[in-house]
Structures are given as structure tokens and as C-alpha cells.
Amino acid sequence: MEGTIFKYDPTSNHIAIQYNNNLKNTAILIPGQGEGPNSLPYTPLLTQTLAALGFSLLQYTSASSYAQYGTSSLNADTRSLDAVISHLQQNTEGGADGRKIILIGHSTGAQGVVHYLTHGTNKGVVRAGILQGPVSDVEYAMWKDLEGVKRWGKVAGELLEAGKGDEVLPREAYEVPITAYRYNSLFSFGGDDDYFSSNLSPASLRALLNPIRTPLAIFLSGSDEYVPPHVDVPALLQRFLNAREDGSEGNGGGVPRTFGVIIRGADHAISGKEEQEVFCGWVEECLRGLA
Hints:
Layout: E1 3-7, E2 15-19, E3 25-30, H1 43-52, E4 55-60, H2 74-90, E5 101-106, H3 108-119, E6 126-132, H4 137-161, H5 180-187, H6 202-209, E7 216-221, H7 233-245, E8 258-263, H8 273-288
Parallel strand pairs: 3-4, 3-5, 5-6, 6-7, 7-8
Antiparallel strand pairs: 1-2, 2-4
Helix pairs in contact: 1-8, 2-3, 4-5, 6-7
């Protein structure tokens, strides 16, 4: 794949890579923890699918890219995405009128999309959000290392109470450098990053999803290695859909309807070719429905 590389924010050295930038519409792909541009195996096929629909694909580096996510936050992610969208709006040939921008978030990038569509300065120009592989960080962490999460969660909580949320935990606490704030955010129920846990109440899910006045498509993987065995994936998807449906336009509210699919056999990052084709086919179906 060939693309154009540029700096999107004059206040930092972060860059964006845009494929097929001759196309006016743009899909912005936001990866998960430990990832960056072109980390996701379905990127080439997604790029082709989007191009056929008149969309370029844009990826970018930020303060959360690769191993930096442990010292970042959803608010920092929102500021970076605002800068990317502002750059697009200001540098579109012929002006920004009529441009369609969509967000595609993988894993932790999915909660970044939800957070942005609630808090982003430029959220009003986004036409749709696609969540691929939204999973609960805290449920996965507790499934794999409950005692470790308890131990370091206690340390992180004490630092937060002492006003030291930016302090980095000891090296043995986690696989990358991580602040007390981010550890608490990712690995505690009710933390700032806790968007997709299976035990969230209906009221909590409505509070997270109903403020978004943008169509959403949610794609869960049928064989996601980051989902604990006790989580009922079909029931989880239905809970997400119900939370949006409760406030939908059809029920007298203002929330656009939400679309959801479980991709059978897909792992977390959709590494299988057949599953990638299914995912990209559904993405095409969703985008054809945009006015």
C-alpha cells in the first residue's frame, strides 16, 4: 500500500498516514493497546474496501501509540483525534463541505471512539462510528491475574487518593510503564476506561452510549481470546444494542439506531482471511447506508 505521511499537529511530532488521499471521504482507524499504524492484519483489505466506497483510510500516531498507552488517557486520545480531524477539515481540496468522516476503533480504540463521540470538539462532523473488538480490559486482566490486579490496583488507588495519579508504578506492575491513574482507569470496574464490561448496569450503558448522536456499528469476535469464558458474547452484544434502543429515535428519543454483528470464528484482531472478508463486507454494508 502507498500513502501520504504528514504532521497533523504543529504542537507535536506525531504523524498521520493516509491511503488513497485523493478521495474526499475519510475513515480514521484507531488501534488498541501496544499498536500503531498498520498493526492490524485487516488493514490492507479494509483499505481496498473503503477505497471502492470513496473513502481514504487514515491512521496516526499519538501519545497512546505502541507502549505509550500506559501513560496516556482517553482525554489525551480525544485531543489527538480532534487535531487529526481539524487538519482534515482545513486541508481538504475544494473545502470540507460534503466530506464524510467515520471512525473505526479496534479494542481500546473502540472506547476511544465512544469517548470521542461524547466529548470531542469536532464530534459533530463524524458521520458514523464502528467498534471492532470492544472488550473489557478489567475483566480480561482479572481473568488472567486476579491477585496481581488486586495488588497493584490497591497501590494505584492509594496513589490516586494522595493526588499522585501521574506517578508511574513499579516495573513489575505491568508490561509497559503505566501511571497510577491509567492502571485504575483500565483495570478497575467503573474506571474511566470501563466501557464494555459485561456487568455494567443498563443505566450505566445508557449513560455511556445514549449521548452519542451518531450511528454506531458494533462488531464482536466470536472467538476473541481477550474475552473471559464466563462472558456470554451474544448477550453482551444485545445489552449494547438495548442500551441504544432505549433512547432511539423510534422510541421517541434522539439516538440513531445501532447495528451489531458477531463475526463467527474471528479472533480479537480478525487475523483470519475469511473473517476479514466478512468484517469488511459488513463495513461496506454499513457505509452504503450513509446518506
